[in-house]
Every structure is written in C-alpha cells, then in structure tokens.
C-alpha cells in the first residue's frame, strides 16, 4: 500500500542530531528502509518535517521504519495511506 510517512522532529533532538552528524545518517536509514519513491523536507507546526512516500509492503515493517525517528529524533511519526492519480482513477471507476 502506498503510504506517506510524516516525521515531525523535536527541535532539541534535531539540533543535537545535526551537531553530532547523525541527522543525515538517520534520514538516509529511513529512506533506504522505505525505498522511498519521493521525499520532501519542510517545516510544519514549527518543526523540521519530512514527508516520505513509499510502498508499505507489510504492516510489520512499521516499527523498523519508525523506531530510529522515535529513538534518536524525538519525532512525531504518522503513516497515512495515499493514492497517486492512477489509483484515484481506478477507485473512481469502481463507483460506476
């Protein structure tokens, strides 16, 4: 299932991760584990935020993906099912 992973980083933990050089490593680890089809970085609610789009093959992958962000970045983590335009067309066609 295509998902959007949103990581809202705790500011203090994010600052520390930048100072120690861990932030790029942790983000790369998440990108590698998700095999992201797209990733965007911005701010939301005053926090550094990553939006990562990927195919969640199995729900049991959620802890492996989320734990580095929880443990090292104090992140708020959200997994949201999403559709691309092909998925939307297919779903709308089923409405009859």
Topology record:
Elements (H helix, E strand, L loop, with lengths): L1 E7 L2 H10 L1 H13 L3 E7 L2 E9 L6 H12 L2 E6 L3 H9 L3
Antiparallel strand pairs: 1-3, 1-4, 2-3
Organism: Jatrophihabitans cynanchi
Protein name: GYD domain-containing protein
Report the order of strands and helices: EHHEEHEH
Report, as a whole number of angstroms, the end-to-end distance.
23 Å
- Could you name the CATH class? Alpha Beta
CATH topology: Alpha-Beta Plaits
**Coarse shape:** elongated
- Which range does the strand content fall in? 25-35%
Strand order of the largest sheet: 2-3-1-4
Low-pLDDT runs of 5+ residues are: none
Structural class: alpha+beta
**Helix fraction bin:** 40-55%
What does this structure look like?
- This is GYD domain-containing protein.
- By secondary structure, the chain is an alpha+beta fold.
- The chain has one domain (2-93): ACT domain (Alpha-Beta Plaits), CATH 3.30.70.260.
- The protein is 46% helix and 30% strand.
- The chain has four helices and four strands; from the N terminus they run E-H-H-E-E-H-E-H.
- A hairpin with a 2-residue loop joins strand 2 (38-44) and strand 3.
- Helix 2 (22-34) runs antiparallel to helix 3 (62-73).
- The protein starts with a strand and ends with a helix.
């Amino acid at each position: 299932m295509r998902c959007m992973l949103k990581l809202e980083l705790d500011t203090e933990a994010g600052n520390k991760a930048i100072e120690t050089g861990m932030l790029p490593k942790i983000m790369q680890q998440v990108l590698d584990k998700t095999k992201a089809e797209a990733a965007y970085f911005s701010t939301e609610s005053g926090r550094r935020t990553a939006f990562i789009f990927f195919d969640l093959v199995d729900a049991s992958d959620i802890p492996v993906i989320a734990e580095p962000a929880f443990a090292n970045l104090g992140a708020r983590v959200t997994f949201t099912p999403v559709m691309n335009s092909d998925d939307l067309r297919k779903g709308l066609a089923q409405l009859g």
